[in-house]
Structures are given as structure tokens and as C-alpha cells.
Amino acid sequence: MKPVGLFQIRRTYKNLGRFRDIVNVFLKHGLGQIIEGLELHQYAPIRWWYKPLHKRLAREETVSLPERLRIALEELGPTFIKFGQLLSTRPDIVPREYVKAFDLLLDQVPPFASEQARQIIESELKSPLSELVAKFHDAPLAAASIAQVHRATLWSGEEVVFKVRRPGIQEVVKQDIDILHRVADLIERYVPDLAFLNARGLVEEFQQVIQEEMDFLREAENASRFKANFEGSKELYVPKVFLHLTTQQVLVMEYLEGTRIDDLDKLREAGVDLDKLARRGSDVLFKMILTDGFFHADPHPGNFLILSNGQLGFVDFGVVGRIREDLLDAMSSTFIGLLNRDYDALTRQSINLGFVPESVDLERYRQEMRADLENTIEPLVGRKLSQIPPMVYVERIMGLALKHHLRLPRELFLVGKCLVMFEGLFRRLSPELDFFAVARPYARRLITERSILGTFTRKFQRE
Prior knowledge:
The chain is of the alpha+beta class.
């Protein structure tokens, strides 16, 4: 493999220092083989080359490669943490041990100065903070790589939170994405064995995802859509967005007072019926996925509060999933097919949706997939959640997809991951909850509605 020249690196990267920082972090955590595989070892610090081989490999012997890569991504900051989190939603191309490691990526950073938050708010809203709020809490409620959150009281008396984008984060992300694009080019040029990753496509997808997450006007739209979808709901409360106080860098929403969904002791002390709460949460989940096709895709316990009236409250809308109409139909049919043990229908559906590569012998595929589905899923049907680890449902389906080289859209993997994470939350609340039983009426309702719509459409076309 031909090495990349220093002149080319200087010309390609506007900040060679950041690029060298990345190389150094990878070497620090025993990831030299990745650097060497991309022919970038010539940019390692001289002191690294003078280390005895056994010292270079010492960390490799005690910590697994996926774990070392996770630690390196965390050290490199928000862009790489978010990129790793995206990779964790792609078990079709990322090995299982890496998916599990990237699932543990932590987005924890120290808060930035409240004075900076005040300045950003005033600059964005073009008014002194004293004219906007009666009280502003300098101590942040939460701090993450993209933004931090401050509580405040408007002059109207309404309690709100200000979500303020971290200073300089847009420039950092832009720089890091440029580097990721260059690394993707190097992978495709010099590591042909990784062609299946479609590295350039992954980076382009990530660029769109993180740019949306940094745009608080987009998050405000997400929150407003959730509020409309759950208008009048007894299960879920969505806070009000103050659009006149919201920009790309500042988001103002109603402050919700409640208990974190994972604080079981406090919930019990408050007399909350945990079984009922788990059922309500599951209803919310399947309405989002199977009715609305628009769901919360960051099910961290800190994003969900239990309000004093027993409602579930969402407090973050930066990461959402959207499901296309054809996939919505497919998911509902899949649920019903699993519940009815109709493995022939499931196999036909995978073909009709274009998931099966053109090079595959369809007759052989039908026979093998039908048998695999029965052997893999049959032992799970009818069993309660308490009898099955949360990952089993999704892992078995994804395992079959990998075995048969199915081309599944990313949305399905994201849905699968969210189902597992939500399931884990609700299982802690109610170990005996039957997840499939909650899903059944939503899936049946959607199929019925689609069938009626299809009949009406065909009649209209004939007339």
C-alpha cells in the first residue's frame, strides 16, 4: 500500500494539529494497527517509535480492541462519540463486539461558564437576559457535548429551560467531519477488505445526523410534532416549546418537574404503580413506532420523567427516528407474522421489500430462511419478557439478516436498538410485562387501516 504524502495531508486538512492529536490518541490506547493499516504511522510522535514492542502492546493484552476504540472515541470528544453511537446502530456492518462497546459511549463533558451561556442567549435573541427572564439559574441542570441546560423563570411566571449550544462546537464538529471524510477516502483507497462498510456513505449519513442534532430549530419542530401526535394523551406529556425564544443555538421549553424513570425507590415512595407505568410506557413506544412512524431515538433514562399525575414526560427531542410508509407496513406485518408463527409470510415479505440481494437463489432462500425463522423465533413466542434477556429478540433477527446478507434500511436497525433500550427500561419497572402483547393491537390496527385505505384507493382508481 502506498503511503500518503505529508504535502497531501497538509493540503487536505486545514488543521494538521487536530489530525495529529487523533493519531496520538489512537496510539495512546494501543490502536497502532489502525494507524498502520491506513499508512499513517509516519505521523506518530518519534517517542512512540522508540518504545519497545512489548510496551506498545502492553495495553492490547489487557483491554479488548473494541473497548480501547471506545475509550479513544470518548477522549477525542463529541464528534467521535456521536460517530461511534451511530455505528452502534449498524449491526449489519459493524461486528457485534464493537456494537456492544459503542453502546457504552458516554457523552459527559464539564459544563461551560454560565456567563458564556448568558452571552449566547442575548446574542441570539437580541435582548438583554434581564428583559427575557425574571430569574436565570447559573448552575446548569445538565451538560453534554452539544449543549447544556439552564432553568429560568419568564416574566410571565412560566418555568422554562434554556438549552444553549456549546460555544465553538459547530467549528469543532465541522473540522472533525472533514477529517472523517478524509479517513473514509483512505479506507476506500487503501483497505479494500473494508469496502463493505461504505465508509464515505457512513460519514455522509453521520454529517446529516449531527447537523440536525445541533440545529435547535429542528429539535423544536420535533417536539411540536410529538406534542401534536400525543395531544390529549393520558400516557405522555410533551413540554411546550417557546418558538419566539428559539433559534438554531438556543431552545426554550417548558420546565418539567418529575422523577427519573429509573429512580425506582423514589417512584415507589410516591406510590406510583410500576406495572401500570410500564404498560403506559410501552403503549407510548408502540404508538410512536407503529402508529406515528416518528419516535424518540435517544431512550436514555435521564430523558424521561414521571410527573406527579403519573404521566410520562419527554425532555429531549434532539434525536428522533422516522419510518417510511412501506417500512411501517412491513414492521406491523412482521409483528403479526411473529405472533401468528407465519414464517412463510415473513419470508415472502423480505423478498417483496427488496431486502434480498439479486444474486441470491430465491427458491433456496425461501426454504432456508423459512427454516431459520422457525428454528430461531419459535422458542421465544409466547414467553414473557422476564424469561428472555432484552437483546435476544433483536439479536436473533439481526443474526438472520447477517446470515442471509439482507440489505436492511438503517431505520429498521434504529428501531431495533430503541426497542431493546426501551424494553430494558420497562423491564426494570415490571419484570412480568409481555412486550408482544402490548404491540399486538397497534400492529393489527395499522394493518387494518392500511387494508381499508388500499381497498378505497383501488376502488377510486377503478372509478
